[in-house]
Amino acid sequence: MQSKRLSSKQRKKLRTVLNSYSFIVIPFFIIAFIKVYQLGFTEGFIAFLKLSDWSLISFVIFSQSMCTYLTVLGDKPELPFDASYIVSIFIKYIVAGLLPAAGAVWIINIDNNPPIFVYFLQAAVFLYASYRFIIDNLNAQELNRT
Known about the structure:
Layout: H1 8-39, H2 41-49, H3 53-75, H4 83-110, H5 116-145
Helix pairs in contact: 1-2, 1-3, 1-5, 3-4, 3-5, 4-5
């Protein structure tokens, strides 16, 4: 039976990625703490969920992931890579990430009473951006290794 524990190399890689991720999202969670502190738990949590900052942070996370790939590919021009794979990732970033995030920011900041689904959309985009950030940075570490 194979162990599901991570090796020390895998833990180090994951720790590096999570440290980068925390640098991006800690300010976001400080905003959440301030909202909850100012307005009380329930009101503050609802106000935090209604901030367009979710989409803005998603933008930052997607941009960081794209730059990570571009940096790795630029640093190692001899690296064989599948161009269609990179293009598909960037298309996913744009279609499933950047466009919905931009739309959510636009609707939340323009509409006085935006539909509730917009808040769920931006939370879903944030979760997807976080997932992609972790996966893509782990992949970039493997590319850097070769």
